[in-house]
Structures are given as structure tokens and as C-alpha cells.
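Q: Please design a sequence for this.
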């Protein structure tokens, strides 16, 4: 891990100090009418939480190691992120209020005859209102993130029927299950994952497709889950690709060979589970004498921060004459970046990667997440001309160990 410079440390301490100043001021202001000793207990409890919060930062290097207890890590990450976001929201609102007060002070100083506007609501000043509002919003977000931990295995089945005129008749009605972003390094509940496997198999899929990120970084993260995912089977096969996290790019290795060995081992785990890993290649699926192609590319991204290893040209070669093509490509930016401009005869692209940010609103009449400001296609079904893209919201989770509004997904696509 790269060491932080002295300037970086000072800036971080300054920011944390400002957050703590505003947060403590808000709590202290909110309990000013509470009688002692209850007021002191509340303030003491907040101080104890803050000390624990600071200590959790120091524990992060341990929590990131493969040997760390997953349950403890998930709790610590959720608490730390939630408490930080609460402090950020509270501090931002109160900082805006301070700017307002300074502005009115300046106006009053230079224009004493003017009247600075005051908001009075049932005896509540603007500062009173903003202080309570900041605590309400910050506390709600904190509570929501903690509650979101209970949703991390709350698998949702998303069903879609897609009509393709060029789909061979033998494949009409084909049921495809797509899963993505398992991130086994984060999973810590075998029984919960088994329920997800059972839900998949209950759909009686003809074909199962996995669109990358089997692990967080280390190949051994999947070992304890191999017996579970080995249960996945379908008459037309189970096919998979690699995602950006599967290459081990986000950890330091003792050598290039150690990193290569990790990836080679991961490829073997795909084989052990009975998954046919597609590495810039395609497979022909035959049914009743008719054929379609499933193409699989290694991670291909049109976002600068992610490395690309894929070659769609290589995967496509030899599939030109097949009437129907499905592409597995982990990063949905690949669709606009290359697929729908240079490969018009790829009918359906399946991606993952975004997780739907694991936070947002996902209801029939409103779909929103902060990730939409980064990825144009981030969750669900998209169409351009005769081509379709489906972006899976992810089976697992990464970073924040929970889901708020955007649930873990198992996708059932019926081709008609």
C-alpha cells in the first residue's frame, strides 16, 4: 500500500477535525435542553462511538487481509462508512449555514439599514431548523446503511422476455439465467448463498451465464463456495468470463509469477465448478441441428481507471455465419465503446460490474442510483436498434457489505 505523504496526512487530519467539530456541535446543540445526567450520557456515548470509529480506521489493514474474520470486517466497514457519511452530511449542512450567517453578517456590517431574512417556523430559527434537519438526514443515512447489511443476501429474481426475429426456432423459449459479481471474498454465509443457488435452479434454466468477478482479489476466496456453485447446471451448459477483480490487480504481489499463479488457479476453480470459462473466444451451442454462439471476452472497459484484457475481435472470429450471438462482457461500457458500433450482429450483451452501486431506488416507476452519473447503462435492460444489453445488479457485494434499495440479483431472460 502506498504511504501517504505528510501533506496528505495533515489534510486528512484537518478534514476529520472539521467533520468532528461540526458533528459534535450538532449533537451538543440537539441535547442542550436535556437535563443532566442524561445529557452527559448521550454526549459520552457519542464520544465513545467516535473513538471506536477512529480506531476502526487503524484496523483496516488487518480487516483487508484474507485471514480477517468476514463477519467482523463486514460490520466494521458498514459502521465506519455509515458514521462517516453521517458526519459528512451533518457537517455539509451546518457549513452551509455558517456561510449563510457570515454572508448576513457582512451585509449587516456594510448595509446596516437592510434586514437580513430570518426564517421562523413555530418558534424555530433557521439555524435550529438546519441543525435538526442535518441530524435527521445524517442519522437516517447512517441507520439506512446499517439496516442495509440485512439485505446483502436478499436475492431478487428479475424476469424479462425479449423477442428476437432472428433467433433459431429450436431456441425459442430458451430460459437463460445470468449471475454476476459474486465477490466470494465478501460472502460469509454459506446457508444464505445456498438459498440463492436454490432460487436459480428452481427456474429450470436451459443455459446459465456468469459475467465476471468471482473473487475480490485472491483466487482462494472461492474455495469454500465451490461445492455450492458446482450445483449450478443446465442442459445447454454453464459459461463464465473474468471481471476486473479476478486478475488480482488491486493487491500487491511478491512477484509477477505469484500474480499469474493466482489467476491460473482461479481458472482451474471455474473448471472444478463445471463452468466453461471463455477467454476471448466463443462456443457454439447446438440444439436440434440449429446453432447459436456464446462469445466471452476478458475484462474490456472503456473507463480509464479499469484495465482491459479482452479482444472482441478474437472472440468473434469464426462466429460470423451463426444467426444469433450472445456476448458476455463484464463492463457495460464495452457496449457503447465497441459492441453496438462495430459488431451490429451481436444480438444480446450481458454485463455486470456496477452492482447498481448497492445503493439507490429501484421500483417500477423510478430507477436511480449515483452510479448512473458514471455509467450510462448501469442496471436492467437496454436497447439500441435490434441490439440488447442487460446489466445485472450483482449476486454479491464489495466494499459496503450491504444493499440499500438495490438488491442482489438473479436474472432470468426468456428469449422468444
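A: Design:
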Amino acid at each position: 500500500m502506498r504511504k501517504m505523504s505528510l501533506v496528505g496526512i495533515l489534510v486528512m487530519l484537518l478534514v476529520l477535525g472539521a467533520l468532528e467539530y461540526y458533528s459534535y456541535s450538532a449533537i451538543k446543540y440537539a441535547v442542550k435542553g436535556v437535563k443532566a445526567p442524561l445529557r452527559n450520557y448521550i454526549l459520552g456515548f457519542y464520544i465513545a462511538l467516535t473513538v471506536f470509529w477512529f480506531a476502526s480506521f487503524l484496523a483496516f489493514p488487518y480487516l483487508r487481509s484474507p485471514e480477517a474474520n468476514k463477519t467482523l470486517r463486514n460490520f466494521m466497514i458498514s459502521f465506519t462508512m455509515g458514521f462517516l457519511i453521517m458526519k459528512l452530511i451533518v457537517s455539509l449542512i451546518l457549513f452551509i449555514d455558517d456561510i449563510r450567517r457570515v454572508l448576513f453578517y457582512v451585509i449587516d456590517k456594510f448595509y446596516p439599514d437592510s434586514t437580513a431574512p430570518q426564517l421562523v417556523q413555530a418558534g424555530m430559527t433557521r439555524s435550529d431548523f438546519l441543525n435538526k434537519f442535518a441530524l435527521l438526514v445524517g442519522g437516517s443515512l447512517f441507520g439506512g446503511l446499517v439496516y442495509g447489511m440485512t439485505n446483502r443476501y436478499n436475492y431478487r429474481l428479475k424476469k424479462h422476455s425479449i423477442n428476437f426475429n432472428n433467433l433459431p426456432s429450436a431456441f425459442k423459449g430458451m430460459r437463460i439465467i445470468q449471475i454476476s459479481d459474486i465477490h466470494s471474498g465478501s460472502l460469509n454465509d454459506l446457508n444464505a448463498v445456498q438459498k440463492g443457488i436454490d432460487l436459480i435452479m428452481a427456474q429450470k434454466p436451459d443455459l446459465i451465464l456468469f459475467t465476471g468477478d468471482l473473487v475480490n482479489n485472491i483466487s482462494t476466496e472461492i474455495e469454500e463456495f465451490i461445492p455450492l456453485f458446482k450445483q449450478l447446471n443446465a442442459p445447454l451448459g454453464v459459461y463464465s468470463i473474468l471481471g476486473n477483480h479476478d486478475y488480482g490487480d488491486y493487491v500487491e504481489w511478491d512477484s509477477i509469477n505469484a500474480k499469474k499463479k493466482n489467476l491460473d488457479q482461479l481458472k482451474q476453480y471455474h473448471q472444478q465448478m463445471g463452468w466453461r470459462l471463455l477467454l476471448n473466444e466463443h462456443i457454439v451451442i447446438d440444439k436440434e441441428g440449429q446453432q447459436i454462439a456464446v462469445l466471452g471476452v476478458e475484462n474490456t472497459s472503456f473507463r480509464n481507471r479499469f484495465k482491459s484484457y479482452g479482444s472482441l475481435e478474437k472472440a468473434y472470429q469464426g462466429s460470423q455465419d451463426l444467426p444469433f450471438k450472445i456476448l458476455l462482457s463484464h463492463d457495460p461500457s464495452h457496449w457503447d465503446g465497441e459492441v453496438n458500433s462495430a459488431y451490429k450482429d451481436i444480438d444480446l450483451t450481458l454485463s455486470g460490474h456496477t452492482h447498481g452501486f448497492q445503493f439507490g431506488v429501484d421500483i417500477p416507476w423510478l430507477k436511480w442510483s449515483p452510479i448512473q452519473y458514471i455509467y450510462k447503462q448501469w442496471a436492467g435492460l437496454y436497447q439500441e436498434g435490434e441490439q440488447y444489453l442487460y446489466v445485472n445488479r450483482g449476486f454479491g457485494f464489495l466494499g459496503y457489505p450491504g444493499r440499500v434499495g438495490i438488491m442482489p440479483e438473479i436474472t432470468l431472460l426468456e428469449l422468444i
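Q: Thanks. Anything notable?
A: The chain has two domains: 6-149, 156-415. The radius of gyration is 26 Å.
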